[in-house]
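Record format v2
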Amino acid sequence: MEHERPQLVVDTNTLLRALANAESPSGKVLGACERRRTVILLSKPVIDEYRRVLALVLTDSRKNRIPPRHIELVLRRLRYIGEYHRTVRSRFEYPRDPTDSMLISLAIEGRATHIVSHDKDLLSLPNSRTEAGKRFRQRLPQTRVVTAFALLEESPWIGELM
Amino acid sequence: MTLKLKLDNVPATKVSALKRKASKLGLSPENYIKQLIDEDLALDQEASSRSFAELAAPFREALDGVSERELDRLSRKKTSRRRNRD
């Protein structure tokens, strides 16, 4: 059976979980991007944020340091398998949280079906009664914010090996 | 094969920095730029020919034993996220 390929915006915490463990739900979601079961949406601000956070996390407190070249290779692989939006004209103002703002702006631009995150505030935003929550529902009526586990539960075929 | 590149509107400070860096590496500015291009294209080639799982191997090793909760905490600490919620 042919499935519609989900268009995903991936939060940095999901990428980090995927890199740490390929067998985790996040790892399976990124693996599905590689197998073209899903599409990862990317933009320059999002890739810059991935680069910045990975560099800080992986050089800060870990005993095994990751050379910048490895980070660059992973980011280029994502660009190779993903859908890169050179320009993101859509804007979702969310001054309290610049990272969420850039992820949501990309979701609007790329017509994402899902934002995959493990951030409680972002996960609760679509159901929030705040002004930002209302704008989210208006601008992204079809987009769901889910954990990697929830995405795999909703669409188990994503994680299946071919 | 020769390809002549002309870079306009490069600030003088950057040109000076480029010359200094090339000199430090024992290269001419032209060869330094050529080296940068070679390295960049090599990265593209490697990224397109190796799987995400392969490229993630050093990360798995570095993050071995770190719980997902701890990864989220590290990620949150380092993101631009501001936690001054309502």
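Chain A touches chain B through 47 residues (CB under 8 Å).
Residues 9 and 107 of chain A are 6 Å apart (CA to CA).
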